[in-house]
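question for whoever is on the cluster today: can someone run the full assembly for these? two chains, 576 residues total. i dont have access anymore since they changed the login thing
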Amino acid sequence: MNNSQINQIKDKAFQYFGIFCTLIGIVLLVIFIGSILIDGLGRIDWNFLTSLPSRKAEKAGILTAWSGSLWIFGLTAIFAIPLGVSAGVYLEEYGKKNWFSNLLEINISNLAGVPSVIYGILGLEIFVRTFKFGGSLLAGSFTLALLILPIIIVATREAVKAVPHSIREAAYGMGASKWQTTYTQVLPAAGGGISTGIILALSRAIGETAPLIIIGALAYVPFVPTSPLDEFTVLPMQIFNWTSRPDHAFVVNAAAGIILLLGITFLLNGIAVYFRNKWQKKVKW
Amino acid sequence: MKIREKIIEGGLAFSALITVLTTIGIIWVLLSQSLVFFKDVSIVEFLTNPEWTPLFTNKNYGILSLLSGTILTSSIAIAVALPIGLTIAIYLSEYAPKGFRTYVKPMLEILAAVPTVVYGFFALTIVTPYLKTIFPEIAPFNALSAGIVMGIMIIPMISSLSEDALFAVPKTLRDASYGMGSTRYQTAFKVLVPAASSGIIVSIILAISRAIGETMIVAIAAGQQPNMTMNPLETVETITAYIVQVSLGDVPHGSIEYRTIFAAGLTLFIFTFILNNISFYIRRKYQERYE
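^ ran it for u. tokens below:
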């Protein structure tokens, strides 16, 4: 066998190894999700969705958890979307190239890499203790809003950057001011990219557990929150709590909760992909 | 009209400023509480004591035993994710048919979208029982299972950033290599990987930083027992898992036990901060090399 043949064999071997590696992650995920469906699907019924938590696994429901997640989703969106989009627009459209914009850029890239537990510690000291919100929905959603802010900012910047300069020149040429140009031309044109980023960021917020544990969200909340200052639990907290109990019946509950959480996560990601594709098709410069 | 424009610009600038306030807030909170902590516990003890037992009557404050848990689980995760992620990147950019690539990439990204508490559940209820059939002596909570699952989670991080880097290598380099009669394998490893090395290194650094900061998987599957060991079959506790453990208990606010989470958090923050800045610096320095 000569050198050339050996090289051909190496080439082929790596091709098969490549296919194997590409599929292994996906196959493992399918196995994981399959086993969770087997474990938990039978547990999901109307009672499970509408019952309060309980010490008895068969009676325990997930009502407080999903309603808490819904609250967190809404409040976090209210805080994070305006802030994130404004900051992104400022950095891309208004910011001048100087030391300050450079600092902001390094800063955002750093914040995106800060572990979520650190955000939890920040939320604990600032929102729970200093502002005295306690372990409430308000403290939780403020903390998560800060956590996803860098994701929304980066997505907004990318989308705004992709809007061609000619659009802006045309608006200025018609006598529009900077803000009028941004609001009536740039933002609508960048809307698809911004929405995709926002939805992905919120899907991340829905799945977060650690920061909420640290700010003192409780695993056992026997009522549905009715105001932002109420204590709360969320789906991932409830799943974590059930997972860490030795009784197998609670593990089944956890699997059922995971089916619900994954359903929401995949739905949000699907919507984000849909927005991205629709936007890419529609806008041709 | 002019005033309205100014007010709007001010509002937008304020939003951008929030991000700076967040960073200042994080550093201030961690430092101010840690300083009080270090009044009671000497830094020398913090850095050299081999035991971490703040919640027991016989108190020891040695961060090393938590740090070793973090290093062990992160190393396992990288050992899983790096070869697989890099192979995927090379395969998708050099070998895979175009159609295959457009389907596979979003599917890989699903791996990154799954909430970490779900991965923790996988590690504890599926991977650990499976590992027990291979290593009967494995602990119910262990570093290996958590590390492997964490590795699966960060595969898409390495594969997609590395693929971007490989994709950015100019076509002329590729053509030159194929023109010399190289196989795809030779082109990939002798030409493309070296040319894209800065981007690949960035992806690895970011993956390490992510693994160090990962919380729920290790809190669920690796255990809550500080342990200075490099044996992956044993129970360990990471810095992040300790912070969760304290938060779940009822440690009184203002006590020294309470402040341990800030000292632990500060340690964690320093590591991720350094890694993130190295990656930012490399990206800045090399991103325009081929343009």
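summary bc i know u wont read the tokens: Chain A touches chain B through 84 residues (CB under 8 Å). The longest helix of chain A spans residues 3-40.
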